[in-house]
Automatic annotation (TrEMBL):
<protein>
    <recommendedName>
        <fullName>Exo-1,4-beta-D-glucosaminidase</fullName>
    </recommendedName>
</protein>
<dbReference type="InterPro" id="IPR008979">
    <property type="entry name" value="Galactose-bd-like_sf"/>
</dbReference>
<dbReference type="InterPro" id="IPR041351">
    <property type="entry name" value="Ig_GlcNase"/>
</dbReference>
<dbReference type="InterPro" id="IPR013783">
    <property type="entry name" value="Ig-like_fold"/>
</dbReference>
<dbReference type="Pfam" id="PF18368">
    <property type="entry name" value="Ig_GlcNase"/>
</dbReference>
<dbReference type="InterPro" id="IPR006102">
    <property type="entry name" value="Ig-like_GH2"/>
</dbReference>
<dbReference type="InterPro" id="IPR017853">
    <property type="entry name" value="GH"/>
</dbReference>
<feature type="domain" description="Glycoside hydrolase family 2 immunoglobulin-like beta-sandwich">
    <location>
        <begin position="239"/>
        <end position="357"/>
    </location>
</feature>
<dbReference type="InterPro" id="IPR054593">
    <property type="entry name" value="Beta-mannosidase-like_N2"/>
</dbReference>
<feature type="signal peptide">
    <location>
        <begin position="1"/>
        <end position="20"/>
    </location>
</feature>
<dbReference type="Pfam" id="PF22666">
    <property type="entry name" value="Glyco_hydro_2_N2"/>
</dbReference>
<feature type="domain" description="Beta-mannosidase-like galactose-binding">
    <location>
        <begin position="67"/>
        <end position="182"/>
    </location>
</feature>
<keyword id="KW-0326">Glycosidase</keyword>
<feature type="domain" description="Exo-beta-D-glucosaminidase Ig-fold">
    <location>
        <begin position="836"/>
        <end position="947"/>
    </location>
</feature>
<keyword id="KW-0732">Signal</keyword>
<dbReference type="InterPro" id="IPR043534">
    <property type="entry name" value="EBDG/EBM"/>
</dbReference>
<dbReference type="InterPro" id="IPR036156">
    <property type="entry name" value="Beta-gal/glucu_dom_sf"/>
</dbReference>
Length: 955
């Protein structure tokens, strides 16, 4: 069923008839000091519907008779739209279909919404004492409520919207005087449970600190308003731990465990003991350290404690491409009695996970940043990550995103104001994925007077806004600080924070024990004196550019190459060729028949599933013009979609290969980074994923189906050693992204005519360079030319193979096939006409003859393979023809022919030379991730540019 276009009136009636299944009630499992639990469910309703005073509403049992008109969301955190989706008022397959989202009445979100929940707290164990030292306290902890909120508990106001402000403003409130313990919830108004009410105020991205989407996609109708992160109740004794932090001495010991400890008592002085315990994350190898003396704390007094714990020969944490991810755990315990080991005297405890790793950064004289991890120069290859449009968090879904990122060979995700939930960092730590968080551009977060790009009428920061920014930075820094996956923090994106904000951010980060680099901004617009230049560039492109774009710089890349914008030098913080068109199976889930026709019949039309209408990326003109010129006008939707996949593959591969090729080639990359050479130190593809089903800016689609853009990246960086074609120099570069893979290699370059398979060149480094050895963490030219390319009369196919050892016995490390136009020509770029998002092409090359290749006969056989208890399959492909089989896509489907997602293929969209055989493997990720409804697949669908469609059953 699809939502027909309808107005506000009809939607209001959905609200009126949606019955809440049950009231949000729960017993929080909190009985001992240090225990904490999130409010697990919410009833939500608009203040336009509920007229009672929120203080009165925050009494257990109060609204029982009217509770049926509230929407019940069985989740601990949800924006208003997220809650309404969880409550079944909306469903996203309808919302995301065609232009339905635009029909949602936004005025309903212009007023505050109420969140309400009831909960009981069991009577606390043992050390209950309401009259002084040893007493039990309860803390209510927020982690950000958008845009701001008043909070009420059992008739008392706990916080107001001035303090509780900002999507990332986390605060701790002592609610001991307000809570009721030992009660039970019952269906009468004399209930002895607790009731909490949160009045969440509407969000305007230009006036409030929200989680926005800039020009990426249409905004959620509620602008992300609400309790999007947990609200937690925590029990402590008289003394509570605050600002808990764990730091290492680089990759060595000792571990320093620090916190503020506060006496929550109003009248009693307490003596405090503290102990820090460090172990591996499985609890083994425990080491501890205790404060030598007790500390006396007067009522309300707080002090810093710092404990050093010596861990002998710690196991070092590496990003996935370089090694293992050993994790440790640090626990701090504070007690108010004479014995720290007595459980009954425990007053508070806090635990965090950490790893031994060191990230440093250097900014060169040319203003390029170089990150190093554990002393090794680290080329950042990343993607810009976005939350779901409704900020819904699903750990398995995020893990699939992380596994996809690593499977492509990328090593980093950038979070531009999308700091998500604490679980994200734990998953990244475990998988070895680096995370580069930071604040978002183009709205309230960067509302300083010198920001020339702010949309009107953005409110410049007031004193209260600086306070919100401070609370936000303190909260995020505390959440992220010990995670080894953290690569740094970008305190600005397109602009840099002013001096006052910079000081606030730096103080907050330092107080949280921040140990990774802090970068002024992701662009070269400016910087505060305190932080200095950030070394990142943001000159685009954000839309299609030809593959030679990245390579079109001088050989010894120098400062003057700035006129080459996003080309492969320096650190590109967000850029790419824009693509990421989903495949038909995904498109059909969110586009109508007319929308699908528009894709290929109206190539310049503004489309709802692109960026917003106000954006430069609302239509597909730049991409489509190039596609029509280079691949030929599409003859059908299928033909268009196949061409988009080829264009996307070609574009993403070229960008990442260009950066890896120019990592070592432009001068040695070392942590001493002072020369004027400008190696490619990093690039973040814009973007990794979409907040909703989008037609561009994603390496895989919203339904997690990977296609051309994904496999282009995988071909570029999916293997730690690769051979790369430099489109501008027509040379071959050997890339080694490992830390310690060395030895003899052979590179072979073979060129054939696409139309008839005729061999035009076959060159190997075996004959050219007798002992080619590979150098870790480098890129270097190994074949300066390939005969036959400049004399190509029409499209040629170039296969580059990297062999471990010699050409006769060497095992294939990587193979990479390029389709090249006549003469090996490249598209002519008009650099001088570049805009912030594009460099126009003045003359296009032609790849049109790829559409008229003779049909190739490819046989497909499948065999089962067991790896780590999860089923994987080997798919054996063989081209039985004397001509090539071009761009063969392989798709794992279930018994109903639906895409199996998430899925990993060792290779895909492959091009086979005449009579070439290739085996690839495939595995469904869903079952291991416990994803609902996931299967291991039943068949593989095969189709290629010149290969007929076939389906091969797995069993
Ligand atoms: C309760 O508090 C009083 C007053 O501070 C103290 O004397 C007593 O020892 C405490 N009882 C326990 C069980 O901690
Ligand atoms: C969302 O924020 C935008 C500004 O970015 C504002 O124009 C719009 O009115 C807001 N929507 C709601 C429902 O408040
Ligand atoms: C930190 O580690 C270095 C070796 O990397 C060592 O020289 C230094 O003494 C250590 N610092 C402390 C406080 O132990
Ligand atoms: C290569 O480096 C990794 C990560 O540091 C290490 O675990 C591995 O033992 C090294 N291998 C060799 C052969 O040095």
């Amino acid at each position: 069923m699809r939502l027909p276009a309808r107005g506000a009136t009809a939607l209001v009636s959905i609200f009126a008839t949606a019955q809440a299944a049950s009231r949000a009630v729960a017993t929080l499992p909190i009985t001992d000091a240090g225990d904490a639990a999130a409010i697990p469910a919410w009833d939500v309703q608009s203040t336009a519907k509920i007229t009672q005073d929120p203080a009165a509403l925050s009494k257990a049992g109060f609204v029982l008779t009217t509770s049926t008109s509230w929407h019940h969301a069985s989740v601990s955190r949800c924006t208003v739209m997220g809650c309404l989706l969880a409550a079944g008022v909306y469903n996203d397959s309808d919302l995301f279909y065609s232009e339905n989202l635009a029909t949602i009445d936004k005025t309903q979100f212009k007023v505050p919404w109420l969140y309400r929940s009831e909960f009981t707290l069991p009577a606390p164990h043992s050390n209950t004492n309401t009259t002084g030292a040893g007493s039990t306290h309860y803390l209510l902890e927020t982690n950000g409520i958008t845009s701001r909120a008043d909070i009420y508990l059992n008739g008392h106001q706990v916080a107001d919207k001035v303090t509780q402000s900002g999507a990332y403003g986390g605060h701790v409130y002592d609610v001991t005087a307000a809570v009721i313990t030992g009660g039970s919830l019952s269906n009468n108004s004399n209930s002895s449970g607790n009731a909490i009410v949160v009045r969440a105020y509407p969000t305007n991205y230009l006036q409030d600190f929200g989680v926005g989407f800039v020009d990426w996609n249409p905004y959620p109708p509620d602008n992300g308003t609400g309790v999007w992160r947990d609200i937690t109740v925590r029990q402590t004794g008289s003394v509570a731990i605050e600002a808990f932090r764990v730091t290492t001495n680089g990759t060595a010991g000792p571990v320093t465990v620090q916190a503020t400890v506060r006496n929550l008592e109003k009248a009693a002085t307490v003596s405090v003991l503290a102990e820090a315990v460090v172990s591996r994350d499985d609890g083994s190898a425990t080491v501890s350290s205790t404060l030598p003396t007790t500390i006396q704390l007067a009522p309300g007094q707080a002090t810093q404690v710092s404990l050093a714990v010596n861990v002998a020969s710690p196991a070092v944490w590496w990003p996935r491409q370089w090694g293992e991810q050993p994790l440790y755990r640090a626990q701090l315990k504070v007690s108010t009695s004479s014995s720290i080991t007595s459980a009954s005297s425990l007053s508070d405890t806090a635990t965090r996970s950490f790893g031994f790793r060191q990230v440093t950064a250097t900014v060169s004289a040319a203003d390029d940043i170089l990150f190093s991890i554990n002393g090794r120069p680290f080329q950042v290859l990343g993607g810009g990550y976005t939350s779901d449009m409704f900020l819904r968090w699903d750990a398995a879904r995020f893990e699939a995103h992380a596994l996809y990122t690593l499977d492509m060979g990328l090593n980093t995700i950038r979070l531009e104001g999308k700091m998500e939930q604490p679980e994200l960092y734990a998953i990244a730590d475990r998988l070895g994925l680096m995370v580069l968080p930071g604040w978002e551009c183009c709205d309230k977060w960067e509302a300083w007077s010198y920001n020339d790009d702010l949309p009107a009428p953005t409110a410049i920061w007031s004193d209260a806004d600086y306070a919100t920014a401070n609370a936000s930075m303190r909260h995020e820094a505390a959440m992220q600080q010990s995670h080894p996956s953290i690569l740094g923090f970008l305190v600005g994106s397109d602009y840099w924070p002013d001096d006052r904000a910079t000081a606030i951010y730096q103080d907050a980060l330092a107080a949280a024990g921040w140990q990774a680099p802090v970068v002024a901004s992701a662009a070269k617009t400016g910087y505060s004196k305190a932080l200095g230049p950030g070394g990142m560039k943001m000159p685009g492109p954000y839309d299609w550019v030809p593959p030679n774009y990245w390579y079109d710089i001088t050989d010894a890349a120098s400062v003057t190459d700035d006129a080459r914008y996003g080309a492969a030098f320096g650190f590109g913080s967000e850029q790419g060729a824009g693509g990421g068109t989903p495949t038909l199976s995904s498109l059909q889930r969110f586009l109508s028949v007319t929308d699908l026709e528009d894709l290929w019949k109206a190539p310049n039309k503004g489309l709802y599933h692109m960026s917003t209408a106000a954006s430069s990326f609302h239509n597909r003109s730049i991409f489509n013009t190039a596609l029509w010129q280079r691949y030929g006008a599409p003859t059908s939707l299928d033909d268009y979609l196949l061409k988009t996949q080829m264009a996307d593959y070609e574009a993403t591969r070229a960008m990442f290969e260009g950066f890896t090729a120019n990592w070592g080639k432009q001068g040695a990359v070392s942590t001493d980074f002072s020369s004027t050479a400008r190696p490619a130190t990093g690039v973040v593809y814009w973007m990794l994923n979409g907040a909703w089903p989008a037609l561009h800016w994603a390496l895989f689609d919203y339904y997690l189906h990977p296609a051309g853009a994904y496999y282009g990246v995988q071909a570029a960086v999916g293997r730690s050693e690769n051979v790369v074609y430099d489109y501008v120099r027509r040379s071959v570069v050997l890339v080694n992204r490992s830390l310690n893979q060395t030895g003899v290699r052979t590179v072979r370059a073979e060129l054939i005519s696409a139309a008839d398979g005729k061999v035009l060149a076959n060159v190997t480094t075996d004959t050219k360079e007798k002992t080619l050895t590979t150098t870790p963490n480098s890129g270097r030219t190994v074949l300066s030319s390939i005969p036959g390319i400049t004399t190509l009369t029409d499209v040629g196919l170039l296969r580059l193979t990297l062999l471990d050892g010699n050409v006769y016995s060497g095992k294939v490390i990587s193979r990479n096939v390029y389709w090249l136009p006549a003469g090996g020509h490249v598209d002519t770029l008009n650099w001088d006409a570049s805009s912030w998002y594009d460099t126009p092409v003045s003359t296009y090359t032609s790849l049109k003859s790829l559409s008229t290749l003779p049909v190739a006969n490819v046989s497909v056989a499948v065999s089962q393979k067991e790896v780590n208890n999860s089923t994987s399959w080997e798919v054996h492909l063989e081209n039985n023809s004397p001509t090539p089989a071009v761009f063969i896509s392989l798709n794992l489907v279930d018994s109903a022919s639906h895409d199996v997602v998430p899925v990993v293929w060792s290779d895909n969209y492959v091009t086979l030379f005449p009579h070439e055989a290739l085996t690839v493997t495939v595995r469904a990720l869903g079952p291991a991730l416990g994803m609902a409804g996931s299967t291991e697949g039943a068949a593989v669908q095969v189709i290629g540019r010149n290969v007929a469609k076939a389906t091969v059953n797995l069993k």
